[in-house]
Design a protein that fits this description.
By secondary structure, the chain is mainly alpha-helical. The protein folds into two domains: 126 residues; 71 residues. It has ten helices and no strands.
Length: 203
Amino acid sequence: MELVEFLGGSKLAAQQWFDRLARCYNEPHRRYHTFQHLEECLEELDEIEGDEERLALIEVALWFHDAVCQPASATNATLSASLAKEFLLECQASDSVIEFVHDMILSTQDHLAKDDPDAAIMIALDLNIFARSPQRYAAYEKQLREESAAVPMAEYAPRRAALLQSFLDRPVIYESETMRDIYEEQARFNLEEGIKRLEQGNL
């Protein structure tokens, strides 16, 4: 509510948009991309110190970044950003605010910050699941598999393992130095273990 009012929206608009996003995050095919993921991102955001306005806009981006989530679709981030734009236009946000939120959401598509420190924070928040406890990380992998249940395991496992390996092959997973200090070591451990389980067909 406070976030919408900060942006210039009304309490009615806040409730309407919350209800709309709730319908998105509660779609029956979702297992990981639910309010649980959103809450885990917002919990981590609360621990970050910095420019309050920019952090508030990152929060907006987090609320919308998985609003559209269809398995195997390449347009999820783009459509989610469009939904965020619709919301921000209703709040009469400035073009610069709309562009900022749009860029933050699109950064979660390839998870590359491209030297943008704000995007680096956004991406780290989206990928904080990599650095959770081994138990939570393992549960996350199972949730993702359930979202892609229509894909045969023989196809899913090598593709997922290759994606995890691509993160390990990066010089750093987290381009935000602050977030890297907190997340990097645990994330690399979890990803290595995740690849082993995928190679064994044992999610």
